[in-house]
Specification:
This protein has 419 residues and is of the alpha/beta class. The chain is built from 17 helices and 15 strands. It binds adenine.
Length: 419
């Protein structure tokens, strides 16, 4: 079996951590048990380009239990948990191509290694596997039934492809499932981003001015958790509706140029390019801490920062100090501007990934069950799957809810009774 990982000797540590994470993934476990019996993915090769974490390991095991042949590479050069990669190779015999800190060339070499398996299904987090397949290996398209996409940035990219008629197979937008973005993007990003900041800096959040750029689902989660720890939160936005929501949720809203002067912490979660630029770095207070939790490392203009800096040095793991030439002030960048929650911490907690990856597993099954019948587009996870995941999660958490009475159902279906 081919693979490329850091060190197979890390496998036992990885296996213990995977076991720990799996304890908080009851919905995926239920799916795995059913898959073991029904083997819905038997005979299919699955190419996965995901963050190589303990939670992704559980997803790999579920897909393999379903009869799928699984190949895995990283969806970010800095998010791989090397012990998990080792455990998947050693104990699950899954070909993994991922090493934490790999350079760009290796990152794409690993993507190409997964494509070398000629996948019937692709599973992406950011659409790098799918876009490489389309642009560099179009011959493989013949055998592909469909794909899934995990994240907002990937879905935006795929919708742009579909609009240009460049997308050649159907893709399920897992991100758009309610049981995904309501929870993973909000509570997952919220907790794991604060986790990454705290692990790498050990700075006090309470009493700080905490600037969150972008008030989508991820931004809301980060703002909520920072406020919960006693920070004064400022939001920057370009969308008037989201800015208004942020104000009514109790936060301050400022343009980045003004926020830059007052912030102690800055987190970008916009999905867009060059959100914090050199003119903003220039204004920051001495000691400002800046990081990104959006998918790609494009939100901070680090080239611009470098161009105005006299020197750069690593002061702690995942913390680079830039000394601004003109002012002598120091700006700290976490995790090289890549996803701070995965670079400096362990990503989202297992309990939210349980729902995200339940969506992935059931979407893979859905693509196989509906092969040849799906639209050549990017489309949502079918509502019955989304609802079933919510029902199973509630049940696993030990909660019961009410059911409509017959009278209530009839009332909701009628239009005749009014004032
Ligand atoms: N994305 C964010 N957190 C993650 C995790 N723990 N595993 C896989 N993908 C993630």
């Amino acid at each position: 079996m081919n693979f490329d990982i850091k060190d197979k000797k890390l496998a036992d540590k990885g296996a213990n951590r995977i076991e720990w994470a799996a304890q908080s993934m009851p919905v995926l476990t239920l799916i795995e048990e059913r898959f073991k019996k029904e083997k819905p993915l038997k005979g299919y090769r699955l190419g996965l380009c995901l963050h190589v974490t303990t939670e992704t390991a559980s997803l790999c095991r579920t897909l393999k239990a379903g009869g799928g042949e699984v190949y895995l590479c990283a969806s970010n050069p800095l998010s791989t948990q090397d012990d998990v990669a080792a455990a998947l190779v050693k104990y699950d015999e899954i070909p993994v191509y991922a090493v934490k800190g790999e350079d760009n060339e290796t990152y794409y070499k690993h993507i190409n290694a997964v494509l070398g398996a000629k996948p019937h299904l692709t599973m992406d987090d950011g659409a790098d596997l799918l876009s490489t397949l389309h642009s560099e290996k179009p011959k493989l398209l013949e055998e592909v039934l469909g794909g899934t996409e995990e994240t907002t940035t990937g879905v935006i990219r795929l919708k742009a492809m579909a609009k240009e008629k460049a997308l050649k197979y159907p893709v399920v937008a897992v991100n758009d499932a309610m049981t995904k973005h309501f929870f993973d993007n909000r509570y997952g990003t919220g907790q794991s981003t604060l986790d990454g900041i705290i692990r790498s800096t050990n700075r006090l959040v309470a009493g700080s001015i905490f600037v969150v750029c972008g008030y989508g689902w991820c931004g809301r989660g980060v703002a909520m958790r920072a406020a919960g720890m006693g920070a004064r939160v400022t939001i920057t936005e370009v969308d008037p509706l989201k800015a208004l929501e942020a104000i009514m949720d109790g936060y301050d809203v400022l343009p980045i140029k003004e926020a830059a002067e007052v912030g102690d912490f800055f987190v970008t979660v916009t999905g867009d390019i060059n959100v914090i630029r050199k003119e903003h770095f220039m204004l920051m207070k001495d000691g400002a801490i800046v990081c990104n939790s959006g998918h790609f490392n494009v939100e901070l203009d680090l080239n611009g920062l470098e161009s105005i800096s006299a020197k750069k040095r690593e002061v702690r793991q995942w913390v680079d100090e830039y000394m601004i030439k003109k002012t002598g002030r120091r700006v700290y960048i976490l995790g090289e501007g890549r996803l701070v929650n995965l670079a400096a911490a362990e990503g989202h907690p297992s309990s939210v990934m349980d729902m995200s990856f339940a969506n992935q597993a059931l979407s893979a099954e859905y693509i196989v069950q509906n092969k040849g019948k799906l639209p050549l587009d990017v489309f949502a996870v079918p509502e019955p799957i989304d609802n079933e995941i919510a029902r199973l999660k509630l049940k696993a958490m030990g909660y019961k809810i009410d059911v409509l009475t017959k009278e209530q159902r009839q009332y909701l279906a009628s239009w005749k009774s009014g004032t």
